[in-house]
Each structure stands twice: as C-alpha cells, then as structure tokens.
Amino acid sequence: MAATLAGLPQRPAGPTILSLRLPDGDEWTLGPRAIGRPFLARITLTNEGDAPIVLWDPDNSEGSACASVTLTDEAGRSTVLRPRPMRRAGGGPTVVSVPPSRVLIYDLELLRLVGPESLPPGRYTVTPSYENDRKSSPPMPEVWTGKVQGEPQAIRIVLPEP
Questions:
Q1: How many CB atoms lie within 10 A of CB 32?
Q2: Is 111 exposed, middle or buried (0-12, 13-18, 19+ CB in 10 A)?
C-alpha cells in the first residue's frame, strides 16, 4: 500500500501520458514522391502524484530523446521514432520539476520518410512513451527513472494523390 500522510493515501510520484496529439489526425499523407514529410507528434505528460517529480529537461542532452512514439504495422513490426539526442554544447545537465496536476509538453518532429527510415503506406498503431534510465548524481535532485506508455492510436500512412 502507498505511504500515507495524515491518514490519506498518497498517489505514487511519476509521470503519466495524458495524451498524444497528431496534427495530421489519423491519416498521414506522404509528401511528393512519397518522401520528405516529417512526422509530427505532441505528447503531453502529467504528474498525477501528490509530490513534484523531477525529469531531465527536454532541451538538454539527457532529456532530448526521452519522449518517443512507436509505430507498429499490421504484421506486428515496430519502429520506434524518437528525436536524435542533442550534443552537450557546454555546462551541466538541467532538470525540470513538474508539480502535482501539472503537465509537460513534448512537440516532436520525428522522421522524414527517406532512405532506410522509410515506412510504407498502410495501417499503423502509434503508441506514445516516455522513458528515462539515466540517474542523476549529487548535487542534482533525484531524477525519475522508468517507462510509461500512453494509449495507442490507429493511423494510416497513404501516398499522395497524383
């Protein structure tokens, strides 16, 4: 059972994926000649716990690739799309504190369908996730580690009309 404060149960600290928003909706039309169009996704994390949680700042090298989406085709093959990790330009890692009931939004431009990363037209399931396995070290506050996934959504990737 969870720890209690003054007899009230506390909700466990950790992020929850509140929503996945795909600006193109449930049908994503490829660009001309079926290449060059980015896949856009907005993942909204929320803290449903009773205490603040600390996450790596999404604008630094540690936090830049924590949010991702997995596209799974009808045959069960999965492709994980995540931003390329940023290189540290200098300084140390930074964190963000997410108070209870607050959100953190990740806007991702994940892929251009070119070359070896191309995805053929068809039906896919898109599942958002946030994963961190990098622990912090003193004097930084303790950063949340683990993985959470959101509800999958169905999409179709289609060729442009001629």
A1: 8
A2: buried
Cβ pair 109, 50 in contact under 8 A: no
Place of tokens 């003054």: 6
Amino acid at 76: G
Amino acid at 55: L
Token pair, residue 1, equals: 């059972």
Beta-strand runs (E) in the chain: 4-5, 8-9, 15-21, 27-29, 38-47, 53-56, 67-73, 78-81, 95-98, 103-112, 122-132, 146-149, 153-158
Name the phi and psi angles at 9, rounded to 5.
Answer: -65, 140
Residue by residue, pLDDT tens for the chain (162 residues) are: 233 334 444 445 677 877 888 877 888 777 665 555 677 888 999 998 888 999 999 888 888 889 988 989 999 988 888 887 778 777 788 899 999 999 999 888 766 544 455 677 899 999 999 999 988 877 888 899 999 999 999 999 887 777
* C-alpha to C-alpha distance for 58 and 104, rounded to whole angstroms: 9
Say what the pTM is. Answer: 0.80
